[in-house]
């Protein structure tokens, strides 16, 4: 156990590794102490990443029609979620979509496709997209997220110019059977290992709010630490209608802050990304989360819309942070919005 959050942060900065009892205590932080926890975790974040925020952008190369039955996913087998379904984007379309994110400040583009995993023809298709993307944007980082990898595929992606590979563990091993039956936790660990062995930076994170216990949440974060994930996206369950987890609402903003703070303290020098569902669950506390996480996705997600990219960039600037790799010029504020509703008009008030 630790005396104060500052003492815990100091120990982490000195190289100590969080143990289970300490991790569980962080998750049990009383509401009135969450700001103290954020401040302490923020010290660790700034020690490793200063005031920089890495901006990432998702391109969904192939959407829906997945044969896997992951219970959280709107693209799963049997999903009735009303999401876009399409086969592979053309190379030109994929590069155009990626370019929009890069123009918005993204330094990493994540190329994602639905499915159990790619065939060799799919890998070649992605390699072609990466080649065209690098021709137009030679300095951008490229992360691929294509599902379970077969032998040799990670090496081909690395040869094509892919920098990182995303494959989330999602939850604790003890909870995995509750969310998926068509592949195993071990399959996911194997793909992360294949990516690392091929020289790709492993990006692996989790989804919270799926019925996991605090112990299972700690297990998941410790596993991500142990496999050496270079970046840890923390997704907050979006309970899509038409999926088994529809109607699952276990998170609130303070719980999300505790989880992000724990991720930072468990993986102090790792890129921690507040990812899908942040707008829905962190809500007005998103700016506080930036003091713990050093990375986010800009704009929309795979099958759901995120908040306006302009608002993300303004949030970063307003909190004293800077976008990694971007210029330091500020954003011009919007003009004053003149009231045209409510008192003195026939339009309804903003209430």
Low-confidence stretches: none
Order of helices and strands: HHHEHEHEHEHEEHEHEHHEHE
Instruction: List the quaternary state of the chains.
Output: single chain
Q: Beta-strand level of the residues, as a percent range?
A: 5-15%
- How many alpha or pi helices? 12
Largest sheet: 10 strands, parallel
Shape: globular
Mean pLDDT: 95
The first-to-last residue Cα distance is 46 Å
Number of strands: 10
- What fraction, in percent, of the residue positions are helical? 25-40%
**Rg from alpha-carbon coordinates:** 20 Å
User: What structural category characterises the helix and strand content?
Assistant: alpha/beta
Key phrases:
alpha/beta, 351 residues, 10-stranded parallel sheet, 12 helices
Describe the structure.
- With 351 residues, the chain is of the alpha/beta class.
- Helix content is 37%, strand content 13%.
- It contains twelve helices and ten strands.
- It has helices spanning 5-13, 20-27, 34-49, 91-103, 120-136, 153-160, 185-197, 214-226, 253-266, 278-281, 286-289, 309-318; strands at residues 52-62, 108-113, 141-145, 164-166, 201-203, 206-208, 231-236, 271-274, 295-297, 322-323.
- Strands 1, 2, 3, 4, 5, 6, 7, 8, 9 and 10 form a ten-stranded parallel beta sheet that branches.
- The protein is globular, with a radius of gyration of 20 Å.
- It starts with a helix and ends in a 28-residue tail after the last strand.
- The mean pLDDT is 95.
């Amino acid at each position: 156990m630790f005396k104060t959050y500052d003492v815990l942060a100091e120990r982490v900065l000195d190289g100590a590794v969080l143990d289970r009892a300490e991790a569980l205590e962080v998750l049990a932080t009383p509401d009135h102490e969450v700001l103290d926890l954020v401040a302490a975790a923020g010290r660790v974040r700034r020690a490793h990443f200063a005031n920089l925020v890495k901006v990432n952008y998702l391109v969904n190369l192939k959407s829906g029609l997945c044969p896997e039955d992951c219970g959280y996913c709107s693209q799963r087998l049997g999903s009735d979620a009303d999401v876009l379904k399409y086969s592979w984007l053309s190379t030109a379309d994929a590069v155009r979509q990626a370019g929009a994110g890069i123009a918005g400040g993204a330094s990493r583009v994540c190329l994602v496709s639905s499915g159990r995993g790619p065939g060799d023809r799919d890998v070649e298709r992605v390699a072609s997209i990466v080649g065209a993307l690098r021709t137009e944007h030679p300095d951008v980082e490229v992360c691929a997220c294509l599902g379970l990898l077969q032998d040799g595929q990670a090496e081909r992606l690395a040869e094509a110019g892919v920098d990182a590979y995303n494959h989330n563990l999602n939850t604790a091993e003890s909870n995995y059977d509750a969310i998926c039956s068509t592949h195993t936790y071990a399959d996911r660990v194997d793909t992360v290992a294949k990516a690392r062995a091929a020289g790709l930076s492993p990006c692996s994170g989790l989804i919270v709010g799926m019925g996991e216990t605090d112990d299972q949440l700690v297990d998941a974060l410790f596993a991500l630490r142990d496999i050496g994930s270079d970046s840890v996206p923390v997704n907050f369950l979006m309970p899509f209608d038409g999926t088994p987890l529809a109607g699952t609402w276990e998170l609130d903003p303070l719980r999300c802050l505790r989880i992000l703070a724990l991720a930072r303290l468990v993986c102090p020098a790792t890129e921690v990304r507040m990812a899908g569902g942040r707008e829905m669950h962190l809500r007005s506390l998103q700016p506080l989360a930036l003091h713990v996480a050093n990375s986010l996705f800009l704009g929309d997600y795979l099958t759901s819309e995120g908040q306006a990219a302009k608002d993300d960039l303004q949030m970063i600037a307003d909190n004293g942070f800077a976008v990694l790799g971007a210029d330091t010029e500020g954003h011009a504020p919007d003009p004053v919005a003149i009231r045209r509703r409510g008192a003195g008009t026939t339009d309804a008030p903003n209430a």
